[in-house]
């Protein structure tokens, strides 16, 4: 029986009243309440608190507010694509305390790894007798997404069962430990990292890799992709938007007061992770869960921490904006008006501020060592006194001040912020220092994304490296607290959107695909990043695997065709005739009539132009495309519905095409091994993270003479020297001896070749040689 626990409900109500009526500042009061908001297992009952200012605003009587508990009559199978489940419904009266609704309940089943818990939501009745619902944005488990009832979950039991306790015990330091930066990072998008596309399949990959590493076994190229990293940063794993035009993952048929039948669909949206709705940020996107259990994120953290050489987990969190869909699941107090992504968050509201920080705390308590904050320049508030937007740096400081509790260890994680302020100001590429957060925070180890890591970097265009020389000098002098490297989810995506008519570096490859792949998995760039630049290097697995990538989101109905029109140019960069012809490639588009690549290319040549000239009038676009002579391939008739179907097929096909597992057969064992060796070289020399010292040298060979040749000489605290030479772009150098270049500190003997790119040859041990595009070497010398 699900029933109200009167004693516990009274105690909960009294606690809320006492806390809210205290003398502390409003934000401090909300910080005390936030950890208890949502549904929690307390002893043998459920404690539930909802923040419900909308009920006060709409003058809903307290007697019309209930917790609606939904108990499945048969156990849902969260691994099934679709099923119909009948639920028994119980309404439990809730108490109102100011703008909160609360109750304590006996009889609710708490979900676990092996058991489905009771689903719940707040229900209120209007004067006409009609029912309305409020969902729990602070939920611990959302098997059917943020727009469906939450599942009551035994989170404490889940966290207590973690298997990496020794890892955390070894990291206890004082009252509160402060975690520092990793040596290097691998960035991973869970749905495209493995064939399975889930956290469980990614965990299995790391567990198999750990066994081979522990046994000293030789790694396959596909395994070397994931080896040698000190940390793994997952692209956001929070719940994202859902299909704008449906179907919903929870479709219910009401049978009356005590039961309803629900048509349940396993969430299957494709998204690159950044289209969040804020609701549910404390738990895991069900699309990423093979079992539908949030335990999978915990399992992944444990797999990393139990690795033979433990790896750190860095979570990417998105609190700088909400997609417009967020307004369908959160009350209006959460938002401060529209922006280019959807909605600004109302950071100055004490309750919103406290709840968002609490969401962050809950997510990191899964066991993250670090946090990457997306779009920190978007954390702003309107200052009426000066009538201008201000950056909320106090909120950013609050994010990094949170103390986490994992396996008995209290700690503050390492923080890295993506902040390109004054972006989106037009001159941001010139005026951004990429140090605004670093200089404003109290901790000395706070990081930001550096200027070659932020968006809009195109290393496949001639002249790129010398045009960025001023930024490179900044990296050398200020980069110790920057993330470095050119290949991440943002730069690779921007690269695929570049006009193919620009001055492309054709020395990188014979086709556009080869050029793009080599630009973002370039041996010379990797040498500079790992053997010369300060900071923390980061690689995106899709770039390292030379797999495709782009803006992947199949939920749009209104603007889906426009998004595809903007992404269509990636067809020229990432898909050739052979790749398109493979049976597993683009099956939906082929079934719609685009049987070969050229037919799709022709259609995509017209679409972007018509989107622009018609001001995105879908009816006119469909009409004009239908009248092209000779006729375009594709579905018939070509109407608005067909255009939307094409857009959806493009996104779903591209999502599958970008999966790293599909590119394993094309991996170069030589390249993956070289990259792995380079990562190990960096791990053995953590001092390379520091800015260049007085004796260090970094420059390019002058005169250029058509070749951009970077050189670097760095000195370790123990006296070791590391010398690097890398051909970044241009023609051949002609024969020269790198060790005879006029660089102060290079003189003398004792140098040994430590690393060489594949084209140099494994038999090269020194002397003159000629370098061409993307070649390079690293020498080391120990003190005598």
List the helices and strands and how they pair.
Elements: E1 3-4, H1 6-20, H2 26-33, E2 38-42, E3 45-51, H3 53-57, E4 65-72, E5 82-93, E6 95-97, E7 100-106, E8 119-125, E9 131-134, E10 150-151, H4 155-160, H5 165-169, E11 177-178, E12 185-188, H6 190-193, H7 199-215, H8 221-224, E13 231-234, E14 250-254, E15 259-265, H9 295-305, E16 312-317, E17 335-339, E18 342-345, H10 350-364, E19 370-373, E20 380-383, E21 388-391, H11 393-401, E22 404-406, E23 409-412, E24 414-417, H12 428-431, H13 436-440, E25 447-449, H14 464-467, H15 469-478, E26 482-484, H16 489-495, H17 512-520, H18 523-531, E27 536-540, H19 541-544, H20 560-567, H21 570-574, H22 577-581, H23 587-591, H24 597-613, H25 618-626, H26 640-657, H27 669-683, E28 697-700, E29 707-715, E30 721-730, E31 752-756, E32 776-781
Helix pairs in contact: 2-10, 7-9, 18-27, 20-24, 20-26, 24-25
Pfam family, one: GHL5
InterPro entries: GH, GHL5
CATH-level-2 architecture of the domain at 3-160: Sandwich
- Please bin the fraction of helical residues: 25-40%
| Unreliable residue runs | none
Measured by DSSP, the beta-strand proportion falls in 15-25%
DSSP summary, beta strand count = 32
- What value does the average pLDDT take? 97
CATH top level of the domain at 3-160? Mainly Beta
Strand order of the largest sheet: 12-13-16-19-24-25-26-27
Content-based structural category:
alpha/beta
What is the CATH topology of the domain at 3-160?
A: Immunoglobulin-like
- Count of individual helical segments: 27
Q: Radius of gyration over alpha carbons?
A: 28 Å
N-end to C-end Cα span: 79 Å
Shape: globular
The CATH superfamily label of the domain at 3-160 reads Immunoglobulins
Please outline the major beta sheet: 8 strands, parallel, barrel
């Amino acid at each position: 029986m699900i029933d109200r626990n009167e004693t516990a409900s009274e105690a909960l109500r009294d606690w809320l009243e006492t806390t809210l009526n205290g003398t502390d500042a409003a934000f401090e009061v909300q910080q005390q309440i936030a950890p208890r908001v949502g549904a929690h297992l307390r002893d043998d009952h459920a404690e539930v608190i909802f923040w419900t200012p909308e009920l006060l605003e709409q003058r809903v009587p307290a007697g019309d507010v209930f917790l609606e508990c939904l108990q499945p009559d048969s156990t849902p199978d969260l691994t099934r694509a679709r099923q119909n489940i009948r639920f028994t419904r119980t309404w439990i009266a809730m108490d109102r305390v100011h703008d909160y609704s609360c109750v304590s309940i006996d009889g609710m089943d708490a979900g676990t790894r092996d058991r489905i818990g009771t689903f719940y939501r707040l229900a209120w009745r209007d004067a006409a007798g009609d029912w309305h619902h409020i969902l729990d944005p602070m939920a611990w488990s959302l098997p059917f997404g943020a727009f469906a009832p939450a599942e009551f979950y035994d989170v404490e039991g889940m966290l207590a069962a973690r298997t990496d306790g020794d890892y955390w015990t070894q990291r206890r330091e004082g009252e509160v430990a402060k975690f520092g930066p990793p040596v290097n990072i691998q960035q991973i998008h869970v749905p495209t990292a493995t064939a399975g596309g889930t956290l469980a399949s990614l965990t299995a990959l790391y567990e198999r890799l750990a066994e081979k590493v522990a046994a000293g076994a030789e790694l396959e190229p596909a395994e070397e992709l994931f080896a040698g990293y000190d940390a793994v940063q997952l692209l956001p794993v929070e719940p994202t938007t859902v299909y704008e035009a449906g179907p919903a993952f929870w479709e219910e048929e009401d049978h009356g007061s005590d039961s309803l039948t629900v048509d349940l669909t396993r969430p299957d949206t494709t998204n690159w992770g950044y289209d969040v709705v804020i609701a549910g940020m404390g738990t895991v996107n069900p699309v990423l869960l093979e079992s539908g259990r949030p335990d999978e994120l915990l399992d992944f953290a444990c797999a990393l921490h139990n690795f033979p050489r433990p790896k750190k987990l860095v979570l990417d969190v998105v609190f700088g904006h909400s997609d417009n869909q967020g307004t369908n699941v959160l009350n209006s107090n959460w938002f401060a008006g529209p922006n280019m992504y959807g909605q600004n968050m109302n950071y100055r509201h004490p309750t919103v501020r406290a709840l968002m920080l609490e969401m962050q705390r809950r997510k990191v308590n899964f066991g993250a060592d670090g946090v990457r904050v997306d779009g920190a320049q978007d954390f702003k508030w309107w200052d009426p006194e000066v009538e201008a937007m201000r950056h909320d740096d106090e909120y950013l400081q609050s994010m990094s001040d949170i103390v986490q509790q994992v396996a008995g260890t209290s700690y503050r994680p390492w923080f890295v912020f993506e902040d390109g302020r004054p972006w989106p100001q037009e001159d941001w590429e010139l005026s951004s220092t990429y140090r605004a957060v670093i200089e404003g925070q109290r901790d000395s180890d706070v990081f930001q994304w550096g200027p070659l890591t932020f968006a809009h970097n195109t290393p496949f265009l001639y002249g790129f490296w010398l045009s960025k020389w001023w930024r490179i000098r900044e990296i050398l002098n200020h980069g110790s607290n920057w993330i470095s490297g050119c290949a991440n989810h943002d730069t690779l995506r921007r690269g695929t959107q570049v006009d193919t008519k620009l001055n492309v570096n054709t020395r990188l490859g014979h086709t556009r695909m080869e050029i793009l792949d080599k630009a973002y998995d370039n041996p010379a760039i990797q040498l500079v990043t790992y053997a010369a630049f300060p900071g923390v290097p980061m690689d995106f697995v899709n770039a390292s695997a030379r797999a495709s990538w782009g803006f992947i989101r199949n939920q749009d109905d209104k603007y889906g065709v426009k998004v595809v029109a903007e992404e269509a140019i990636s067809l020229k960069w990432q898909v050739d005739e052979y790749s398109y012809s493979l049976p597993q490639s683009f099956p939906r588009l082929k079934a719609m009539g685009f049987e070969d690549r050229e037919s799709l290319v022709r259609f995509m040549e017209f679409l972007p132009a018509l989107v622009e000239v018609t001001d995105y009038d879908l009816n006119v676009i469909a009409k004009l495309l239908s009248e092209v002579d000779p006729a375009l391939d594709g579905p018939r008739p070509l109407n608005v519905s067909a255009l939307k179907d094409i857009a959806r097929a493009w996104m779903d096909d591209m999502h599958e095409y970008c999966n790293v597992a599909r590119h394993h057969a094309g991996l170069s064992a030589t390249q993956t091994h070289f990259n792995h060796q380079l990562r190990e070289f960096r791990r053995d020399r953590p001092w390379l993270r520091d800015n260049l010292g007085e004796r260090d040298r970094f420059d390019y060979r002058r005169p250029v003479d058509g070749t951009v040749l970077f050189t670097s000489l760095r000195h370790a605290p123990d006296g070791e020297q590391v010398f690097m030479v890398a051909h970044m772009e241009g023609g051949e150098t002609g024969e020269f001896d790198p060790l005879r270049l006029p660089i102060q500190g290079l003189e003398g003997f004792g140098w040994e070749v430590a690393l060489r790119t594949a084209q140099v040859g494994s038999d090269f041990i020194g002397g003159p040689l000629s370098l061409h595009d993307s070649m390079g070497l690293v020498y080391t010398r120990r003190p005598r």
